[in-house]
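Reader question, answered in our methods column.
A reader sent in the components of a multi-part assembly and asked whether the whole thing could be modeled at once rather than chain by chain. We filled in our standard form and ran it. Here is what they sent:
COMPLEX SIZE: two components
ENTRIES:
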Amino acid sequence: MKFADFISVKAIKPELASKDKEAVIRELAGSLVASGDIMEDSAESIIKAILKREELGSTGIGRGIAVPHTKHPSVEKLVGTVGVSTEGVDFNSLDGESVHLFFLLVSPPDRPGDHLRALENISRQLRDDMFCKFLKQSKSVEDIKTLLDEADNNQFGS
Amino acid sequence: MGEESIIRKVVVPNRQGLHARPANMFVKVALQYQSQVEIARDGLTVSGKSILDVMTLAAEQGTELTIIVTGPDAETAANALVEVVRRFVEEDEEEGE
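And here is the structure of the entire assembly that came back:
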């Protein structure tokens, strides 16, 4: 699976305004509402489910990366967005570091394979230090879209 | 130093597969041991001590994983890692499925 298969370009947030965990999740989910990828009347339920998932263990998986996610019946296909915080956000991440790079995913409950393939793609690209560095430095939606396209064309990582 | 690796095969038991929480569970256990831990599927071998690596396996329910442990505590580590894969089922249940 490639980024282009699930990242909603219109929902990308190059400069996250939020300073804490819940606010970041709300900002990214709100962005998916604005882009038309999730329905407004499902947004609160999706946000609650993502926060509940975080209580089971932070999706801040270290190296300044977090992958907040949930399954939700209101989506028919896997949708996701990317957010970048220059300052970093305390996300109770596993290594205690603040998080700069966010990939938020919402997937249909009956498609565990798609969710795994999205995680595979994200983690494979994020293993590459240059990809992380360029993503952190991105200042616009266009910068991030270009970077994701380059990653999709195998210009990073293994 | 010429140590032999312990190799164990285990099938991903849970419906949701090797998603983020099981990956984290696996890595947490692997990090408790001195031995080098690798995990493989279908020819792709990655470090069992890195969540990013383990998530790149995208292992669905039914996938056969090979756990390769090399080092002084390899036997104990391998047993613990096989056991943790069996417990992936509990991680699915916590999500209320």
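What stands out: Chain B touches chain A through 22 residues (CB under 8 Å). The beta strands of chain B are 6-11, 36-41, 44-47, 64-70.
Send us your own complexes using the same form.
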